[in-house]
Amino acid sequence: FRSLAGELVRSGATRQTRLIAIGGGVVGDLTGFLAGVFMRGVDFFQVPTTLLAMVDSSVGGKTAVNLKTGKNLVGVFHQPKAVFVLPQLLKSLPLRELRCGLAESVKTALIANEKLVMAMEKHSYSEKSRDIDFLAFLSSECIKIKADIVVKDEKETSIRAFLNFGHTLAHAIETRVGYKGVLHGEAVAVGMRFATLVSRRLGYITKEDEGRISGLLGQYSLPAALTELKTGKAAGYWKAGQLVKLMRADKKNQAGSIRFVLLDAIGNARLPEAVSEQELLASLKEFQTIA
To answer: Which of 66, 117, 166, 216 could make a disulfide contact with 109, Cβ separation 3.0–4.6 Å?
Structure first.
């Protein structure tokens, strides 16, 4: 970050300089953060090249960088002047990256729009065909949902937190592996499956809904268990106590309590709420049996 800021100065950048982020979520976040703090803020534009960035990270103005102690702990809210989505770029996207975008699409649908969930369930998706029209449809629908949420709650004082569904465990997973070997969308997919399990255990959703969500993840070839993550680590690597410890660093936490975005129903999220450490340990124990 410092080297990029220094390069801007050496290149003669001023307050009228505009930055353009062409790439995935990391490029977009770094560029947005740099634009947000350079000379106290310059304009920037997003040109996302991954499905994950198209459906989620390029929209909404959240920018951040990671620390060794946790994910996205340093950042600013800085809205792009425009976001240009070019679905044809997805033709050359690596399969794992494409799945990451599908994971965020599933997340967006689950928190706010059961009709979109049903559309994803009904679609005969094939990774080989890489249906650009369907992926463009997903991008459009997810952007509408996220934009509507952000307009109502830009600084995440209430409903914008819904967008963190699945992210509490996901960020712990990413921190555990040192941000290597597990892509963000893969961690989110596992985190969503865990948050679904917690939602069912606490009596918010039915076993049937839990099964639908599990089936949707499988339909789009998304990991749903810690052991499905391609880390090369044995099952014992994912110790429940260690994951709980890492979850304590999540930004949504308050007064020492670990807080989760859960579901009341498919398409209807709950605001973050504290889940006891005892319940989390019991949930993780059950979660490790569904692999």
So the answer is: 117
Q: Is 167 exposed, middle or buried (0-12, 13-18, 19+ CB in 10 A)?
A: buried
Angle at 203 between CA 122 and CA 110, to 5 degrees: 30
Flag residues of the chain having pLDDT under 70. 291
Helices 184-201, 167-176: axis angle to 10 degrees equals 130
Q: Which parts of 1-68 are beta strand (E)?
A: 18-23, 43-48, 62-67
pLDDT of residue 291: 60
pLDDT of residue 153: 94
Q: Are 246 and 71 in contact (CB under 8 A)?
A: no
pLDDT of residue 249: 83
**What is the Rg, in whole angstroms, of the alpha carbon atoms belonging to the chain?**
19
Query: In this structure, what DSSP letter does residue 254 have?
Result: B
Residue 124: Cβ-neighbour burial (10 angstroms; 0-12, 13-18, 19+): exposed
pLDDT at 23: 96
- DSSP helix/strand/coil, 151: helix
Where b means 16+ CB within 10 Å and e means fewer, 138-150 reads bbebbbebbeebb
This prediction's pTM = 0.90
- Concerning whether 212 is annotated as a catalytic residue, the answer is no
| Residue 123 bears catalytic tag | no
What whole-number distance in Å separates Cα of residue 28 and Cα of residue 58?
6
Question: Would you call 155 helix, strand, or coil by DSSP?
Answer: coil
Question: Is 184 a residue of the active site?
Answer: yes
Q: Which of 184, 200, 251, 252 is catalytic?
A: 184
- Please state the separation of Cα 234 from the chain's center in Å: 25
- What is the model's pLDDT at position 1? 76
Using CA atoms of 87, 91, 95, 99 in order, give the dihedral in degrees to the nearest 10: 20
